[in-house]
Amino acid sequence: MNLQINGVPSEIKDAHELQKILEQIHRRPFAEVWMQPASAWPTICALVNSDAAWLMYLRFDGDAGFSTRNPGFSGTPHAVIEYRLTNDQRNEYPAADNVSIRRLHCLAFRVASLDLELG
User: From residue 1, how far is each of 49, 85, 109 by CA, in Å?
Assistant: First the structure.
């Protein structure tokens, strides 16, 4: 499995290595994370701002994909969270679409474990 955080690639060989690398996300306020299996698809992108994360799942090149929603969100309906991409572009997504960084870790761990088992 290939993992890229802010443009820095890593080849993941086991779950322990993945956990160690994911912990680096907490060391910076913003992160752009890409997880790709050896076959390149499907792919997961995560944008991180501190404890907030927005995720997108892409099935193939050119796919509009699926993104996260938080049914438990109880904040202001028009609230947004800013995310920064590796190229310094700033994107805003509805706060209601954000999930916690902990949920990101759980998802990433599940995806990587499946890819490492099947790979």
Answer: 24, 21, 11
Please, which contacts does 69-76 make with residues 24 or more away whose CB atoms are closer than 8 Å?
69/96, 69/97, 70/96, 70/97, 70/98, 70/99, 73/98
Which stretch of DSSP H or E encloses residue 34? Answer: strand 30-36
pLDDT per residue as tens digits for the range 39-71: 778 888 999 998 889 999 899 999 999 999 988
Containing H/E element for 81?
strand 80-84
Q: What is the pLDDT of residue 112?
A: 66
Q: Coil, strand or helix: which one is 114?
A: helix
Give CA angle at 52 (109, 115), nearest 5°: 15
Nearest alpha carbon to residue 7 among 89, 94, 79: 89
